[in-house]
Amino acid sequence: MTIFSAKVSESVGKKICVMRLSAIGDVCHAAAMVNRIQRHWPEAEITWVIGKVEYQLVRLMPGIRFVVFDKSQGKAAVAQLKATLKDTVFDALLMMQVALRANLASRVINARRRIGFDWGRSKELHWLFANERVAPRKHAHVLDGFMDFADALGVPKTDAPSWHIPVSKEDAAWAKAKAAELGPFVVISPAASKAERNWLPERYAGIAKHLHSRGKSVVLCGGPGELDKQTAQAILAHQPPVTANMVGQTSLHQLLALLSHAELVIAPDTGPAHMATTVGTPVVGLYAHSNPRRTGPYNNLNHVVSVYDECIAAQRGKPWQELPWGARAKGEDLMQKISLDSVIHTVDSLLQAPAD
């Protein structure tokens, strides 16, 4: 594989296209890779093809040309992408999404190097659309897998990922004022993308009561979707001491800024858990269906409360180490295997203060 770093460092204007459309958590991981390129190669020209919702999170990242791809528009979105980029030839296209929709859309992007995932992580005919592949890696966290693309370009390695996802002064001021109003607070972001991946409402209520006993305000956060709202209402039906229900009440930037002031975030595998990681807030992740070693909050994998190992072994008859990376456990009742006591224990270990 040719080395790209020398070419970029010799000349201003080398063009790199990043294709990662969704979802919020994965865009957080991708942002760390983009920040790495910017930090070491400030002269590189970066274009990021990204989803409509996800763009709202990273839109203020400096030095990036964003091209919004609205997948709900179908073929019209591909035509718009082609028209927008028709006069650009990229030195490298980083194909960081294996979904067939993204693969097909990538055909209209002109690039000399089309770098995709290695064979082990390639699916949905991803390999047909690339002319290079990143180095193979076994049991990689999604973020580390994205960093493989920077490695393929020859970007110098870093000891740990870092993020620079700016928000507006207005949103930062709003969050600062809200945090002052709340006092010491913990965020519970209870809703994942599917109901079966959510913890039980009564146990969310139970951890809220425990946090209240420790003098912490409890804030519910989440998106504007119906599942998010229903999950919050199911929790509130148990009458926990929740200080504020902000589900569906914040923009992504307001939420990101608010998370930066929280002492802790408790969440299943959902976007706000990874958003919290980007601003350095500790996360207690709750996992049963997916392997947290692959998709957990990157800086707090040792604070994940997970029953994934036992669930996948029971269903597949083998430990996760002997199964395809990313294998998911299935079932609507798996999250109930996560006990309230186990979450309380992990929360206490992070808060590091005696309960009242």
What can you tell me about this protein's structure?
It contains 14 helices and 12 strands. The chain has helices at residues 5-10, 24-40, 52-58, 75-85, 100-106, 142-153, 169-182, 201-213, 226-236, 252-259, 271-278, 292-295, 308-316, 340-351; strands at residues 15-19, 45-51, 64-69, 89-95, 110-116, 132-133, 185-188, 217-220, 244-245, 264-267, 283-287, 305-306. The strands form 2 sheets. Strands 3-2-1-4-5-6 form a 6-stranded parallel sheet, with helices on both faces. It is globular, with a radius of gyration of 21 Å. The relative contact order is 0.11.
CATH architecture of the largest domain: 3-Layer(aba) Sandwich
Helical content, roughly?
25-40%
What name is given to the CATH topology of the largest domain?
Answer: Rossmann fold
Which regions are unreliable across 5 or more consecutive residues at pLDDT < 50? 1-13
CATH class of the largest domain: Alpha Beta
Mean pLDDT comes to 94
Work out the strand percent. Answer: 15-25%
Shape: globular
**What order do the helices and strands follow?**
HEHEHEHEHEEHHEHEHEHEHEHEHH
Distance between the termini: 60 Å
Our count of helices gives: 14
Number of strands: 12
Q: Oligomerization state of this entry? A: single chain
InterPro entries: Glyco_trans_9, LPS_LOS_Heptosyltrfase
Organism: Alteromonas salexigens
Pfam family, one: Glyco_transf_9
Protein name: Glycosyltransferase family 9 protein
What's this model, at a glance?
The protein is α/β, with parallel strands linked by helices and 356 residues long. It is built from 14 helices and twelve strands. The termini are far apart.
